[in-house]
Amino acid sequence: MLAAYLFATILGGFCGIILKKTLARYHPTLESNELEK
């Protein structure tokens, strides 16, 4: 059960990074806003 939760968390984080990179490519302002925080 714990292994499945960890796997889902890692997979979700990985997908989140890809999504941010994809969005940043089409919306450069998003990338700069993230860096400023």
Walk me through the structure.
This protein has 37 residues and is mostly helical. It has one domain (2-36). Helices cover 92% and strands 0% of the residues. It has two helices and no strands. The mean pLDDT is 80.
Please sum up the structure shown:
By secondary structure, the chain is mainly α.
What is the straight-line distance between the termini? 35 Å
Number of helices: 2
Number of strands: 0
Which strand-content bin applies to the residues? under 5%
Classify the helix fraction into a percent range. Answer: over 70%
The overall average pLDDT, rounded, is 80
Radius of gyration: 13 Å
Order of helices and strands: HH
Shape field: rod-shaped
Structural class by secondary-structure content: mainly alpha
Structural descriptors:
about 35 residues, mainly alpha, 2 helices, about 90% helix, rod-shaped
Please outline the helices and strands.
Blueprint: H1 2-26, H2 28-36
Helix pairs in contact: 1-2
